[in-house]
């Protein structure tokens, strides 16, 4: 299906994004409270990094089958029904993630055409939309594979 190197790249990106978030926050806090000079654009940078982190981590969560689930009655149902429900949930999730990916591609194309950028740091938005679309597609694929696995 999807190789281990893709997972390693995603984990590495997630780690780098998390480190960048911590660095931005640390520099901003030290600058703001000790030097009376906050990091310019820290709020905007935090928003962008956090959004990227969420999208990079999404396929990893899907691959691990670690999304939040509420299973109030599943223990009362036969194993075969639970398998069918698992496949159904995976199909619905894949469809929703596919829809999100499509809309993010449309959004990214619009942002690319318009040249949309962030206000303070002038960072282009389109790459973030494309990252989100790719993450949603990977998550859908991983989720479908996870939905088919045996208990």
Provide an overview of this structure.
- The protein is mainly α and 151 residues long.
- It has one domain (4-147).
- The chain has helices spanning 4-33, 42-64, 79-114, 126-147.
- The longest helix is centred in the middle third of the chain and has 36 residues, at 79-114.
- The chain is globular.
- The complex comprises the extracytoplasmic solute receptor protein and the two transmembrane proteins.
- Keywords: Cell inner membrane, Cell membrane, Membrane, Transmembrane, Transmembrane helix, Transport.
Keywords:
151 residues, mainly alpha, 4 helices, 74% helix
Helix and strand arrangement:
Layout: H1 4-33, H2 42-64, H3 79-114, H4 126-147
Helix pairs in contact: 1-2, 2-4, 3-4
Summarize the structure.
This protein has 151 residues and is mainly α. It has helices spanning 4-33, 42-64, 79-114, 126-147. The chain is globular, with a radius of gyration of 19 Å.
